[in-house]
Amino acid sequence: MGINKNVVITGGTGQLGVAATAQFLASGYEVYIPVFNDSEIESFEYASHERVHLSAGVNLTDETQVVKYYSSLPALWASVHIAGGFAMAPLAETSKDDFLRQMNLNALSAFLCCREAAAKMNAAGGRIVNVAARPALEPRSGAGMVAYTAAKAAVAAMTQALGEELAPRGILVNAIAPSILDTPPNRKAMPDADFALWPKVDEVAATIAYLASDENKVTRSSVVSVYGKS
């Protein structure tokens, strides 16, 4: 049974999501993107593309909504989970709610999407790609953002466990771990940084596209560092 060329991209309207959408469209995929806020659609450059299917008002931390969203989709080959959140604050200024918000936005959303995506994959198998972060692999670099670091570390651990669990079904689960991406908001936030060292979103999206493709025959349970020169 061949692959069906259907892919979900959560966070598909963001900087990395747009680049990933472009990669999959170029390879002939039908791209399904759940969106939380309608405003995200207005500026999305692929909103009117015939092979892009946007669904507004989907809260990826709500189990009922995630189940409903994935159940509405055709059989999937791949699901890419870019959606998440970031917060930076010292320990003393991080509340329980702050911690849980990071866990929900990053780890819980990825878990729910992994579970429902796997249920939509047929006998041909499939591919799941999560997005961790450099502090997930190098926790000491997460000083000053402990809630975010813990949440992304959970994504990394979950990826490795699911990669083992789902391999017998032909579903290969991997994650990428970016350092600081070269985006306009990051340049504005860190104007004195050497932007040439940062990984470019198109390059990172290419890694996602490979891991999610049928060309990837053997890589699973991996958290692939995409640091560029940084």
Structural overview:
It is built from eight helices and seven strands. With 230 residues, it is an alpha/beta fold. The protein has one domain: Rossmann fold (3-Layer(aba) Sandwich), CATH 3.40.50.720. Helix 4 links the parallel strand 4 and strand 5 (126-131). The protein is globular, with a radius of gyration of 17 Å. The N and C termini lie far apart (41 Å). The relative contact order is 0.15.
Q: Keywords, please?
A:
single chain; about 230 residues; alpha/beta; seven-stranded parallel β-sheet; 8 helices; globular
Which architecture would the CATH scheme give at its second level?
3-Layer(aba) Sandwich
Instruction: Compute the number of strand runs.
Output: 7
Strand content: 15-25%
Mean of residue pLDDT values: 96
CATH class group: Alpha Beta
Rg computed from alpha carbons, rounded to a whole number of angstroms = 17 Å
**CATH topology label:** Rossmann fold
The tally of structural domains comes to 1
